[in-house]
Structure formats: structure tokens, C-alpha cells
TrEMBL record:
InterPro entries: AB_hydrolase_1 (IPR000073), AB_hydrolase_fold (IPR029058), Peptidase_S33 (IPR002410), Serine_prot/Carboxylest_S33 (IPR051601). Keywords: Hydrolase. Signal peptide: none annotated. PANTHER family: 2-SUCCINYL-6-HYDROXY-2,4-CYCLOHEXADIENE-1-CARBOXYLATE SYNTHASE, PROLYL AMINOPEPTIDASE. It holds the Pfam family Abhydrolase_1. Belongs to the peptidase S33 family. It comes from Occultella glacieicola. GO terms for molecular function: hydrolase activity. It comes from the Bacteria. Gene3D superfamilies: alpha/beta hydrolase. This is Alpha/beta fold hydrolase. Residues 52-250 form the AB hydrolase-1 domain. The lineage of its organism: Bacteria, Bacillati, Actinomycetota, Actinomycetes, Micrococcales.
């Protein structure tokens, strides 16, 4: 596994770009290798500082591409040299998308099964060995990045000096179904809060959904916009600025052309960009698999978000004047792989992955109960994506974990107030 490195300078920092070949399957059962990429940033004078590895939220998102050094990264560079890891399948690591996945649907599904948290941990360990040998390093993870860190603490705790998690403590044995029951309830609550702030938007959203059921509106990418896909705009409600962005989207959607009511081109363009998975198809393809741990969590996920939705009447697709209306949140549905051009080529493979009952266990409660690694975790009281209830249970299950429980943030706290949040995590670790 040869490591190659190139570098350049940006405003008081050395940047080093690392490429490492690693096994596709770290167990050795499946042949082949893939590339893993990480960008290291070192502030002048910080060459002897310890490493901090950033695990991006997702799944299926590449690491940050900072065009300036600010927020949590600026605070981290005061104490660490920072490694921004493109998790396998993303960014400049060997990509996995409709253009690169080969073979039939079964082969593609098998490949996707090797892109989960356990393999990301093994990649990080290979990179650590190549860069610093046996020396442990610090971990920082947001959302799914916290899921990866929890797997890291289960799988390779000797490689971890300390760990910090924001909005990312998974249920150790929580099924996808139970997770989605909690997230649907949280999403319904956020919808109620949103419509209480902008009561006129409920009628507007219902009118748009009814219009889309009756009329054909074509997105700039060429496909028809359905009312059910329009409702997935609610994923933004889980962020601090989501209320404002959704309100601005809904403020003037219609115009009249030759006596016919139509949706504005500007509205369709903004909605199309918000809903397309073209920049991150793996997010949709892998999303439910992050909750799968074989028999330990009830077997196959089998499109759990789609099935559990039926238990919540407020998320029904009825757009009638007396029907409740709710936008959906961080939920992936099988029909999105029929309607989004970026996902259509992955439809069969993702369906096969959703039906797999043999995906390996990711977290070891026994190892976590004996944890010796210092861990601090920020848990957001009103998090729409990672349920507070399961996060608190996992915080109790990891020996020595120090939680910060707050209602100061939505799910994106690290993005909107990263410097202060990371500083608080560091102080919590060291107090």
C-alpha cells in the first residue's frame, strides 16, 4: 500500500495531498484495491502538532474543500495538523457512481456494501500507519462522521488518542425502522414549528403539491417534478437556516401564462438543484445501510423509511384542503431512484443492498463499555436527523464519554458555529 504525497502553500499553511491504495475488502475475501485521498493542512509552526482526522457527515459526501481557513478548521489548526479524508467512494478517493460502477446490479450492490463505516475505519487505519506508524491520532466527526468514529472506537481503539463527535451518536442496536419512527416524529415537530412561523406557507405548499398532481412541470434537468419529490425539500428544516431558505423558495412560486397557472422557471430551477442527488448519489444509495447490522438490528432495512412513513398520517400524500401537510426530512424512498436522473442507474443495485440481511455489525457494545479513549460528544436536543433518545443511550454505553447536551444548535451546529463548538469539545475533553 504505497503512499504518494504532493504539496502546495496557501496563506500561512502547508497543504499536502495524500493518495493511498488500500484493499477494496480489508478482510481479504474480495480481491482488488481502491484509492483513498486525504488533504492535510498544517499551519506554519504546527509541523510537530498531533494529527486530527475529520470525518465528514453523509454518508457519501466528500470532505470539505475550504476556500478559506475559518470556523472549526481554524480552531483545530491551533492545536492540530488536520487531515480531511475523502471517505471511500467520494471525492478524489476512487469514486463510486453511475459512471464508474461496473458489472450487473448484484456486482454493483456488492461493491456498495464495501463502502460502509467499518471499511472507512480500516482505510483510516491504513493511512495512519502510512503517515505516523503506531502513533494514535485525534478524531472529529459530524453526523455520519460520528457513526464512523463509534465504529472506530469499537474496531480499532488503539489508533485513537481522543475523539470528538457532533450530532453523530448512532443507536448501537437500533433498527432502521425504530430510527425512522423517531426522525419522522422530529420532522413533524419541525414542520409544525415552521408553519407556526410562516402560516401562509402551508397553503402555498399544499397548492404546489396539488398543482404538481394535476399538471406536468418539467425541471431543468428534464424530468417531471412530482408532488412527493417536492415534499422532500423538508430536509432543510433540520438546519439552522432551513426555515428561511424554504420560506424564500415558497414565497412566489406561481405565475399565469395565457390564463394558465404555472410554476415559475426560477422556482423550478431552485427546487431542481435542491433535490438533485447528482453531486452526491452515494448519500441516497448508502443511506439506509448505515443502520444495517444484520441480525443484530433485524436483518435487511428493506426501504424502512418508505414503510414507516405509512405509520404517520401527517406525511400522507393527500394535498386536499383539509389534509395535514408535512415535508419529509432525511428519508430516502425507492421512487427517488425512478425520478432523479442521477439515481436511476443505481436503482437495482440500491434495491438489492436494501434487501441484504447479512451486512456486518458495526458497533461492539462490549468494547465500548470498556472504552479507554477520551471522548466528548455534542448532542442536540432538537436534532431532526440523529435522534436525541438513541444518542443519549449510546453516550451512556460508551465508558467515559463526556456529553454536551444543548438546544443551541440544529444538526449543522459545526457548520454555523464551528469555532466555538470545537473549542467547547476540546475543553470538555481536557477538563
Amino acid at each position: 500500500m504505497a503512499l504518494t504525497t504532493a504539496g502546495y502553500r496557501i496563506d500561512g499553511h502547508d497543504v499536502r495531498e495524500h493518495h493511498l491504495e488500500v484493499p477494496l475488502d480489508h478482510t481479504g475475501a474480495v480481491p482488488g484495491t481502491i484509492g483513498v485521498f486525504a488533504r492535510e493542512i498544517v499551519r506554519d509552526g504546527g509541523a510537530n502538532r498531533p494529527y486530527l482526522v475529520w470525518f465528514q457527515g453523509g454518508p457519501g459526501n466528500r470532505a470539505n474543500r475550504p476556500d478559506s481557513v475559518g470556523g472549526w478548521l481554524d480552531r483545530a489548526l491551533e492545536d492540530y495538523r488536520v487531515l480531511l479524508l475523502d471517505q471511500r467512494g467520494t471525492g478524489r478517493s476512487t469514486p463510486a457512481n453511475r459512471q464508474t460502477l461496473t458489472g450487473d446490479a448484484a456486482a454493483q450492490a456488492d461493491y456498495l456494501s464495501h463502502l460502509r463505516a467499518d471499511a472507512i475505519v480500516a482505510d483510516a487505519e491504513a493511512l495512519r500507519s502510512a503517515l505516523i506508524g503506531d502513533e494514535p491520532w485525534t478524531l472529529l466527526g459530524q453526523s455520519f462522521g460520528g457513526f464512523v468514529i463509534t465504529a472506530y472506537l469499537s474496531q480499532s481503539p488503539a489508533g485513537v488518542r481522543e475523539a470528538m463527535i457532533t450530532a453523530g451518536l448512532p443507536g448501537l442496536r437500533t433498527s432502521a425502522e425504530d430510527t425512522y419512527r423517531l426522525t419522522y416524529a422530529a420532522t413533524a415537530k419541525r414542520n409544525a414549528e415552521y408553519f407556526a412561523r410562516h402560516p401562509q406557507d402551508e397553503g402555498t405548499a399544499r397548492a404546489i403539491a396539488a398543482h404538481l398532481d394535476a399538471e406536468e412541470e418539467i425541471l431543468p434537468t428534464g424530468e417531471r417534478l412530482s408532488s412527493r419529490r417536492f415534499r422532500t425539500l423538508g430536509i432543510s428544516l433540520g438546519t439552522r437556516t432551513g426555515f428561511d431558505s424554504l420560506h424564500y423558495t415558497l414565497e412566489d412560486p406561481f405565475l399565469t401564462v395565457d390564463g394558465t397557472r404555472r410554476l415559475r422557471d426560477g422556482f423550478l430551477d431552485g427546487v431542481g438543484r435542491a433535490l438533485s442527488f447528482a453531486p452526491r448519489p452515494l448519500y441516497a444509495a448508502l443511506h439506509e445501510s448505515i443502520y444495517a447490522q444484520g441480525a443484530a438490528t433485524g436483518g435487511a432495512t428493506d426501504w424502512a423509511a418508505h414503510r414507516v412513513r405509512e405509520e404517520f398520517a401527517e406525511f400522507a400524500l393527500d394535498a386536499g384542503p383539509d389534509a395535514p401537510f408535512c415535508f419529509t426530512g432525511e428519508h430516502i424512498y425507492p421512487w427517488q431512484f425512478e425520478e432523479d436522473p442521477a439515481l436511476v442507474p443505481l436503482r437495482e443495485a440500491t434495491d438489492l443492498l436494501a434487501r441484504r440481511a447479512d451486512l456486518p455489525v458495526l458497533y461492539d457494545p462490549h468494547v465500548l463499555a470498556e472504552n479507554q479513549v477520551p471522548v466528548a460528544a455534542a448532542i442536540y436536543h432538537d436534532d431532526m436527523f440523529v435522534p436525541r433518545r438513541t444518542s443519549l443511550a449510546t453516550a451512556d454505553a460508551i465508558r467515559g464519554l463526556r456529553p454536551i447536551i444543548t438546544n443551541d444548535y440544529q444538526h449543522d451546529g459545526i457548520r454555523v458555529d464551528g469555532r466555538n463548538l470545537l473549542d467547547r469539545l476540546i475543553r470538555t475533553l481536557r477538563r
